[in-house]
Amino acid sequence: MNKADYAIQAVKGIKDVANNGVQEDLMMYKDNRIFEFAESSETFEIFTSTEGVNGTIELGDSETPPLLALEDGYSITIQEKRFGSGFVINEKTYRRDQGDSTIKVDEFIAENSKQVMTDAVHYFLTESFEMLNDAFDGDSYLAPDGNAIIGSHTWASGDTFDNSGTAVLSESSVDELEEYSGAFTDASGKPMPLNFDTLIVKKGSAAERMARKLFAESISPVAIGDINLYEGEKIIVSSPYITSANKLNWFARDSRFKNPLRVKVGMFPTMHEPIRLENEAVRVNITGFLGLGVTNIPYSYWGSTGAA
Q: Which CATH number is 3-50+75-304's, of 1.20.58, 3.40.50, 3.30.70, 3.90.1690?
């Protein structure tokens, strides 16, 4: 076996381990309570937001009850996008004569594999958390009604609600949130009280410290990757992927409802078969497919900029 063949076989020997490791890393985030994390073979996913039913009436002794149908809202399409990176083992690396070149090739491949796969996971999570980092602006992701995820919303029926605030996280702002949740109504105006049992904050921020003081003092977190979950009176989820620019932001979610923020895995970041190039270098590609979007009117989410 020549040195180029050795380099190719070394990549083949490590790629399955690297691929399985990345999949395990990302699957940890499946229960992060922030997104709906799902695998799908569909390139395009089409969803229709729902708005409940309306029309129950008083009946006479022989009267036939009216038929009710779930009222459709907006149609949403999520298209997956391709992402990836790679690295090259050049001829000089695997042919150099000094020392034990096989060990150097193994070390080079192992370190490059680790770094590029770690970067792929970072890209995946950064893109996913853009739905929260962009939640007040709507520059990257919009709710089905065409508005930012956190802000003013219009049901397809025409009624409106606003799931945004500006108050810093505190006991009084949580009281205001509870009042909002108790007065919430659905698309037809029927009472639909919400139970915001989950708070989402930036890891290490003042908002996280306040959330812990209010609801999880002295409770040790459960780690999911880089995310901490505090199972107190309310579940506190703290993540480093909320950016420093948004460290004052805090979000609340009612976990009883299907999560409208969808992270669809078309293909986990995958290290492919090595390719020998014309210049005798060996190229290794890593690619994946990811779909992100908001599948329903985000009434189960509420957010504050924390600026006031």
A: 3.90.1690
